[in-house]
Amino acid sequence: MTDPNQDADKESKTPETTDADWAAALSEQTAQTKQANQADGLQQDMDDWASALAEQTAAIGPAPEDTAAPAAPSAAAHVFQPLVDSAAEGDSDIDLIMDIPVQLSVELGRTKLTIKNILQLGQGSVVELDGLAGEPMDIFVNGYLIAQGEVVVVEDKYGIRLTDIITPSDRLNRLNSRR
């Protein structure tokens, strides 16, 4: 069924009004399409946030009250694959850094001199160091103290025998004692 009043309205409109009606309808449809696309984009953003939150929760583990539930696999395990395929090959990880060159140095002792005293040095001069005879020498790798040792002579060459490996906690204690 059609409304007779509606048919009369269509016949009485001029082409200009029809064009204006079409333009209005088209702009309304375009606006609705934009709103729908924005809503889809917002929904996509919300989905992305939800999945990121789920991955984070899985990586951290279950909340304390959910300890009875099994832990979900870590998202980090999917992103960061292990360098080796099995635990038996775990020793090969160190092989990646074995060829990196480092500087090893041994320090007999230290002293402070004025420029005047340095200029007075000549062949045969003796410089007194703060290290005592028989005291272990400090061994540095790239400037970091890692061990102590004693001097040895092997086939007319000097060497160093390690007597003590410095642990990280020992390094901190040494730094605190110097202050």
From TrEMBL:
Residue span, Flagellar motor switch protein FliN-like C-terminal domain: 96-166
Membrane topology of this protein: Peripheral membrane protein
A GO biological-process term: chemotaxis
Region (Disordered): 1-21
Keyword set, alphabetical order: Cell membrane, Cell projection, Chemotaxis, Cilium, Flagellar rotation, Flagellum, Membrane
GO MF term set: cytoskeletal motor activity
Predominant subcellular localization, coarse grouping: membrane
Compartments in which it is found: Cell membrane
Classification via Pfam families: FliMN_C (PF01052)
Recorded GO CC terms: bacterial-type flagellum basal body; plasma membrane
Residue stretches of biased makeup (Basic and acidic residues): 7-16
InterPro entries in the cross-refs: FliN, FliN-like_C, FliN/MopA/SpaO, FliN_T3SS_HrcQb, SpoA-like_sf
Domain of life of the native organism: Bacteria
Similarity comment: family membership: Belongs to the FliN/MopA/SpaO family.
Protein name: Flagellar motor switch protein FliN
Organism: Eoetvoesiella caeni
